[in-house]
Amino acid sequence: MGRRLNRLVLAGLAAAATAAALAPTAASAAPVKPGPTPNKAVRAACGAAQPGHARCLAQYRAGRPVHSGRSAAAALPDGFGPADLKSAYALPATTSTKTVAVVLAFDYPSAEADLAVYRSTFGLPACTAASGCFRKVNQQGLAAPLPEADPGWALEAALDLQMVSASCPTCKLILVEGDDNSFEALAAAVDTAVRIGASVVSNSYGGDESGFDATVEASYNHPGTPILASSGDFGFTTAQTPAALPGVIAIGGTSLVRDGSSRGWSEQVWGGAGSGCSAWHDKPSWQHDPNCQMRTTADISAVADPATGVAVYDTFGIPADQAWLILGGTSVSSPFLAGVIASTGHPEKVTAQRLYAKKASVFNDVVGGSNGFCGDDYLCTGLPGYDAPSGRGTPRGLAAFQ
């Protein structure tokens, strides 16, 4: 469970880490070969979940403390920031004011304050409750009472809110907090997010699919409101709920590095990116991969590898001088792409079916890397065209969603 996250251990890790012990800043990071080998410096924000419950999918490692005495460039925290991500995915400046909802379990007490630090650090416009840009509600859509706080899920929420901010800095944000991490509570929170005005909904959590999916499936199917869900961080394995549900856009993950290409970036399949062949959900008519007779995940992807991760600020239980962390997991890619979809100004047009109908040229094809063992099949290997870990690929600008 997320509440088992030891914040003292996390803070100690952040304080003890040095630039030599961990990866360099995103601007100077050398290419990292993706693969399934665990990185002992990387920890999961949430532990295993009981049946019928979800676990959050954020993974974190320490970054260097940010010191005001460093140069302006060096004073930025480690990990990719908004400018890096906009460059990698050719995103234009956006003026969309659509609303993106992040659905998670438990309360994140320092959400608004941490979001303010993240946005000011990277030069993004303020997004506050007073201005109407930011709202935090319980699963009924009310400002109070909020559920109990949980440090693991709070770190997930920090990541999600900040990734939406990175891709759509002018979008409005709603954090909808489920009473707990049961799928019933989270499904109710998704319904609430749509009811109170979300244009896009991101879900960075999951659990093994089962016959129980039928009881929550309708909550993840809202025509006109794209529902995104992380495909999981466990490599090629059983499909995850809610990512495998028919109404959901399943989001996979990549390792993203700078290079000397004309794009300036390259990607491979991240070794932890979730992919799978559903045992419970029929093959949609618009999905045509040959070796899975049921629903295949994922559909599209973006950066997720903690080794090439993103900067996130979270002070819930952490001293402010140690609060900048580097996060990864498909928890990064889902909210980031939710913001990209919202930034088009017409998110209601976006469905998984339309993504499969798009020309290949609107995606960065993710070739190379593997998330498991499947005889080099597309179900676990980054191959030209569609592959399960990265789906159709990563967005090349907004064209994939227009």
SSE inventory with pairings:
Blueprint: H1 7-16, E1 43-44, E2 55-56, E3 59-62, H2 82-88, E4 99-105, H3 111-121, E5 134-138, H4 151-167, E6 172-178, H5 183-195, E7 200-203, E8 205-208, E9 227-230, E10 240-241, E11 249-258, E12 265-269, E13 276-282, E14 294-297, E15 300-303, E16 310-313, E17 324-328, H6 330-343, H7 352-357, E18 363-364, E19 394-395
Parallel strand pairs: 4-6, 4-7, 5-6, 7-9, 9-11, 11-15
Antiparallel strand pairs: 1-3, 2-8, 3-17, 8-10, 11-12, 13-14, 16-17, 18-19
Helix pairs in contact: 2-4, 3-4, 4-6
Low-confidence stretches: 1-37
Number of strands: 19
What best-fitting shape do the alpha-carbon axes yield? globular
SSE order, one letter for each helix or strand: HEEEHEHEHEHEEEEEEEEEEEHHEE
- The name of the CATH architecture is 3-Layer(aba) Sandwich
What's the N-to-C terminus distance?
39 Å
